[in-house]
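#help-structures

NK: newbie question. if I give both the sequence and a SMILES, will the prediction place the ligand too? trying with pyridoxal-5'-phosphate
OV: yes, paste both and it writes out the complex. here, I ran yours:
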Amino acid sequence: MKIDFANLKYQHEIYKDEIEEAIIKVARNCNFIMGDEVQELEKNLEKFTGARYAVTCSSGTDALLLAMMALDIKPGDEVITTPFTFIATAETIAFLGAKPVFVDIDEKTYNIDPTRIEEKITENTKAIIPVSLYGQPSDIDTIQAIANKHNLQVIIDGAQSFGSTYNGKTDSSLGNISTTSFFPAKPLGCYGDGGAVFTNDEELANKMKSLRVHGQSKRYHHKYIGMGGRLDTIQAAVLNVKLKYYEKDLVLRQEVASKYTKAFENKLDITLPFVEEKATSGWAQYSVRVKNRDELQARLKEVGIPTAVHYPMPLHLQECFQYLGYKQGDFPISETVSNEIMSLPMNPYVTDEEIEYISSKL
Ligand SMILES: *Cc1c(COP(=O)(O)O)cnc(C)c1O
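OV: that's the protein plus ligand as structure tokens.
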């Protein structure tokens, strides 16, 4: 058996006629920049997420930049986040000249541990960025309460969690600003780079709309220092088609996750994913913990089972962040999990036979 990790080809096959027609329409109209499809997508995203404002942009990384620029994060500021995430979460903080301040993760959810946040708050702290890792929102109520108490902003990095919920609300509709990514391998992927920011605050929404077109107020008049951060019309056209079927994708992903969990429940040496009762996950990844990870990965590869590691090195140990002065041992849970974590094939189309095969080889 040869299993596909994200199975993007199969997904294209299913929606091929509609998606290709949408792409051709943009090509024929030549409305490549901010065409009608972009506004249409933003309306659709608002409806889907329940956020009052959706502003699309060029990637999940640029979504984080737009959010922090809108909140005036600048040199000298500190932003609290998790070291167990993709580099973009902390890289964008540093890119704006602010200082990433890490807080270790919860051992079960792998999201930022809210009980450790307050001890890291200083007079320079401006914001907290919880990451909805593998698709599961962080404990937003607790984090928001800490933020309110200390007058901080909350930016949710929801690059992996589009459509997932916390107390019945999508995590795009929570926080001061929430971001997402439409990178092809994310749960809702486009056909290149793409992203979005969400907020319930009209002023912030308007500022981010301006920031993504070079801070302009009207053509060639620039109110802010901004960026070139628009979503291509072609990507919006693809997403308008895929979003129509996304609710179904989420159900299928949940089914795959539940089947994995059931198939593995008697394997005592594997730590299974844990989702809080008040949350649902978009299952960007189905990640388990094993003791002999690297060896196991190699053996699974030999029998046609692709795996991945999200992520092998926590951010406080990355070369680019050496200047922050962290060392091995500073965030023991992140360090242990990064040595043991392994993601299994996850997409809406993983079959029962594949799950059985993977379970037998594990
Ligand atoms: C993928 C990802 C990003 C960046 O998104 P891009 O669209 O690739 O720029 C940011 N944060 C997290 C947690 C991610 O997984």
